[in-house]
Design a protein that fits this description.
Elements (H helix, E strand, L loop, with lengths): L1 H23 L2 E17 L10 E10 L2 E6 H15 L4 H4 L14 E5 L4 E8 L2 E8 L6 E9 L2 E10 L2 E8 L17 E7 L4 E10 L5 E5 L4 E2 L2 H13 L1 H7 L7 H17 L8
Parallel strand pairs: 6-13
Antiparallel strand pairs: 1-2, 1-11, 1-12, 2-3, 3-4, 4-5, 5-6, 7-8, 8-9, 9-10, 10-11
């Protein structure tokens, strides 16, 4: 019964998510990608559990004027939603089997604008959509003399600090672009691998390819709340601490007090396991 309740809650969330996407999934083309990089993102959400190491593929699309970074599963899920929208599939059918939708733990999209020297991050906390801007030149890199061969390329070491973590990166001049995964950039070559010194969050290049046909870089046009990076970090923390309340605000109903108590306790246990965000402050 408890499992059924949780599944119904997830179903309600997905239904709301699909509905919001079909209402606000407008985009505009801002560039064409010349390179497509796939990174394996290894992460540890629970700082107390070294055995719970997860992996997810992330995409970096690099154009002449900027780049876009996001989850590969987010792209697949959005493509399925777009297809459902075009075919006018009733929403009750679209969400009948939630297992068909690829899952991601990363709903952000990061755009770097080379000319403006700014990056824009779109993120979501439940149904709340946020947008904030950062200076691309905020990373203070220290390039070291150490070298290593990674992913079949000669790489050089560099270090920096960001959002409460110390990072080690390895970049290659064999791919002469000042780019990298997530918000990392600014080194004299593509960042092949970067991770914090505790290995809680690591990005490693899995593949790189030149585009053989036109691949557009799409920028979302949707209603968002303008915020700051710190504001979004706080919103995620607050939502994680009050997940039952947030679900009720989205329309979830707990008519049985005992079941609500059980669900709240389970949600709190899960929240405690999500104690290790990538950006600490």
């Amino acid at each position: 019964m408890m499992k059924k309740l949780i599944n119904l809650t997830i179903l309600l969330f997905l239904f709301t998510f699909v509905y919001s996407q079909t209402k606000t999934c407008n985009t505009k083309i801002i560039d064409q990608a010349n390179l497509i990089c796939i990174y394996t993102h290894q992460y540890q959400r629970d700082s107390t559990n070294k055995e719970d190491i997860r992996n997810e593929n992330m995409l970096l699309l690099i154009g002449n004027n900027g780049s876009k970074f996001l989850s590969e599963n987010l792209v697949k899920k959005d493509s399925m939603i777009y297809d459902i929208e075009k075919r006018n599939v009733p929403l009750e059918i679209a969400v009948a089997d939630i297992s068909i939708y690829p899952r991601t733990n990363f709903n952000y999209q990061i755009f770097k604008n080379y000319k403006k020297g700014k990056l824009v991050c779109f993120d979501r906390v439940f149904n709340d959509k946020y947008e904030y801007e950062e200076d691309m030149n905020s990373l203070n890199w220290k390039i070291e003399m150490d070298t290593d061969s990674i992913a079949g390329m000669e790489c050089q070491k560099a270090t920096t600090k960001y959002a409460g973590r110390d990072y080690i990166a390895w970049f290659t001049k064999e791919v002469p672009v000042n780019e990298g995964p997530y918000k990392f950039h600014g080194l004299p070559g593509l960042i092949v691998m970067v991770g914090d010194t505790k290995n809680h969050y690591v990005f490693k290049l899995k593949s790189i390819s030149k585009t053989k046909k036109q691949v557009n870089i799409y920028y979302p046009i949707l209603y968002t709340t303008e915020s700051t990076r710190e504001g979004v970090v706080k919103a995620k923390y607050d939502a994680n601490q009050n997940i039952v309340q947030r679900l009720e605000q989205m329309g979830a109903r707990f008519t049985d007090p005992l079941k609500k108590k059980e669900f709240k306790e389970r949600a709190q246990r899960k929240a405690k396991q999500r104690n290790n965000p990538m950006e600490l402050r």
